[in-house]
Sequence to fold (159 residues):
Amino acid sequence: MGLKRKKRGEDRKTEGKKSKQDTISYQHYTNERYGFSLKVPSNLKMAPPPTNGDGVRFYSEDFEVTAYGNHTNIISENETIETYYNEDLNSIPVNIAYKRLTANWYVLSYEQNGLITYKKFFFGNEVANTIIMTYPASEQSKYGNSVTHIIESFRSSAY
Fold:
C-alpha cells in the first residue's frame, strides 16, 4: 500500500512535464518532383522553391535544412554511391567528425567555421536524395534532437 502511494505521487510529479522535443511541432513536406518527404520544425520558414522543383530550403536565423533530389548516372555512366561519397570526402577541407557509408546511403558530419554540417545522401538506380542541415556548433544542445527527428522522418524515393 505504501509503495502504491509513493508511485502515484511520483506519477503526479512527472505528469504534465514534457521534454523539449515534445514541445516542438513539425510540418510535413513532400517533394512532388523527386518524391522524398520529411518533417521539419514548424517555426522554420520555407524559402521560395527553385523553379525546377528539385528541392526545398527551410531556415531560421541559425538553423537551415536543405533537401533535394537529382538524377543519377547523368554526369558519368556507372556512377555508384562510392562515386558521390568520395567526391564529397574530397571536397570537405576539414576533419570529418562522423562518416558512415552503406550500400545505398551515407552520412557525413563535420564542423567548419563554427558551423556543424550534417549531410545524408540516399542513392538509387535512377535518383538520389540529399538532406543537409547546418547550425552553430555552440547550439548543438538546442538543435541535436531536431536534427535526429528530421533525419528519422526523412523518406527517400531513391530506393
User: Anything to note?
Assistant: Residues 1-19 have pLDDT under 50 and may be disordered. The first strand starts at residue 26 and ends at 30. The CA atoms of residues 140 and 156 lie 25 Å apart. Helices lie at 2-14, 81-91, 140-153.
